[in-house]
């Protein structure tokens, strides 16, 4: 079938993207679902820094590629062997497909699925297929999703069925921002109720983590960013204190506010400097969690003795250490119960044709989470 999609053919074009237009809205070909695959009509897709990092070249991916990985939509057709989804079901995509059979999947860690990593790196679906092309020229899939398009063919293992009364623009948030940010708090860190926390980097993922901390009644929720507008958003969402990361004494301010540091610090900015700051503001015996994705060449150094003598924990978090089929429905339940107001992360609703301008807003820090609505 012929569809409209946002195609990236060259990374590293200069900003503003409204002028360089790295994403071209093109008519491309989408093949029907093969065995174990599902055709989804995309209704909403969020703009994430993981998309931006492919556009600016910080995350090398095979090109050309249809971007977009945080999506919600409706099942249109299922391939052979798919028996638990049917046309009309509402679904959210997870950006790591999980095979269910490799060692990480078997041990309850599908975010580390080995075939999923291989297919995401290669730009294919989980089975190794490419369903996107333009004539005879193949196009690559982004994280098994490629959601900046009218339709997408995905592996069944990339999809989670959701309540069909949840608005699509809100549902899309659960595919990345909420799953990653909330999951880092409740899964990776296993932060107990009433523990103090700080979040460094206040994009959609960081603010979702902040909301999780408020849900867990953290007595101190310190929000840290260089953007004053984002600090204001954090205060409105429940942060008990905000500190500008550009301040030379940022770490000292946080340690003074928290009488020695927080029990849990979450790095969500995707930079080694942010991770160093997060480690410095973690108290003795505390846990530092990093969910940001920096350029592969970035390095992080720490004082080795502090890790040992202060019994520190440093952890990485990918996909929020989630089991998507378990966690997305329960996060939706928390949202519906008013415990996790993730709808407040929505900044703008845009058309697919305006996607380059929207990435300018994301790059400048002007927006938290923009949603492409596709009718």
Overview of this protein structure:
- There is one protein chain.
- The strands form 3 sheets. Strands 3, 5, 6, 9, 10, 17 and 18 form a 7-stranded mixed beta sheet that branches. Strands 13-12-11-14-15-16 form a 6-stranded parallel beta sheet, sandwiched between helices.
- α6 crosses α7.
- The two termini are 17 Å apart.
- The chain has 13 helices and 18 strands.
- The chain is an alpha/beta fold.
- The radius of gyration is 20 Å and the shape is globular.
- The chain has 2 domains: 207 residues, Quinone Oxidoreductase, Chain A, domain 1 (Alpha-Beta Complex), CATH 3.90.180; 141 residues, NAD(P)-binding Rossmann-like Domain (Rossmann fold, 3-Layer(aba) Sandwich).
Radius of gyration: 20 Å
Give me the CATH superfamily of the largest domain.
Answer: Medium-chain alcohol dehydrogenases, catalytic domain
What general outline do the C-alpha atoms trace?
globular
CATH fold name of the largest domain: Quinone Oxidoreductase, Chain A, domain 1
Number of H/I helices: 13
Low-confidence stretches: none
Helix content: 25-40%
CATH class of the largest domain, named Alpha Beta
Determine the mean pLDDT.
97
What is the domain tally? 2
CATH architecture of the largest domain, please? Alpha-Beta Complex
Structural class: alpha/beta
Tell me how many strands there are: 18
Strand share of the residues? 25-35%
What is the makeup of the main sheet?
A: 7 strands, mixed
N- to C-terminal distance: 17 Å
């Amino acid at each position: 079938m012929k569809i409209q999609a946002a195609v990236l053919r060259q990374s590293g074009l200069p900003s503003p993207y409204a002028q360089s237009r790295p994403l071209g809205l093109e008519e491309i070909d989408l093949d029907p679902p093969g065995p174990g695959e599902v055709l989804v009509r995309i209704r909403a897709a969020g703009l994430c820094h993981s998309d931006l990092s492919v556009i600016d070249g910080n995350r090398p991916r095979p090109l050309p590629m249809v971007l977009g990985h945080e999506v919600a939509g409706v099942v249109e057709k299922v391939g052979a062997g798919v028996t638990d989804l049917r046309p009309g079901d509402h679904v959210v995509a997870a950006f790591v497909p999980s095979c269910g059979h490799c060692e990480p999947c078997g041990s309850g860690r599908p975010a580390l699925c080995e075939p999923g990593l291989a297919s995401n790196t290669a730009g294919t679906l989980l089975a190794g297929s490419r369903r996107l092309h333009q004539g005879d020229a193949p196009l690559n899939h982004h994280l098994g999703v490629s959601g900046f398009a009218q339709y997408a063919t995905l592996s069944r293992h990339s999809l989670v069925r959701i309540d069909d009364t949840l608005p699509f623009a809100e549902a899309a948030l659960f595919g990345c921002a909420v799953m990653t940010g909330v999951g880092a708090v409740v899964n990776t860190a296993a932060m107990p109720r009433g523990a103090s926390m700080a979040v460094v980097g206040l994009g959609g993922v960081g603010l979702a983590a902040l909301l999780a901390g408020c849900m867990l009644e953290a007595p101190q929720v310190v929000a840290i960013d260089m953007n004053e507008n984002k600090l204001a958003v954090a205060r409105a969402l429940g942060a008990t204190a905000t500190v500008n990361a550009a301040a030379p004494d940022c770490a000292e301010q946080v340690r003074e506010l928290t009488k020695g540091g927080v029990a849990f610090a979450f790095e969500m900015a995707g930079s080694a400097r942010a991770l160093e700051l997060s480690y410095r503001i973690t108290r003795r015996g505390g846990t530092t969690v990093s969910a940001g994705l920096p350029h592969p060449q970035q390095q992080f150094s720490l004082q080795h003795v502090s890790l040992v003598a202060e019994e520190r924990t440093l952890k990485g978090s990918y996909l929020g250490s989630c089991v998507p089929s378990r966690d997305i429905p329960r996060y939706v339940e928390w949202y519906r119960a008013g415990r996790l107001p993730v709808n407040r992360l929505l900044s703008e609703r845009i058309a697919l044709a305006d996607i380059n301008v929207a990435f300018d807003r994301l790059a400048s820090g002007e927006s938290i989470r923009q949603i492409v609505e596709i009718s």
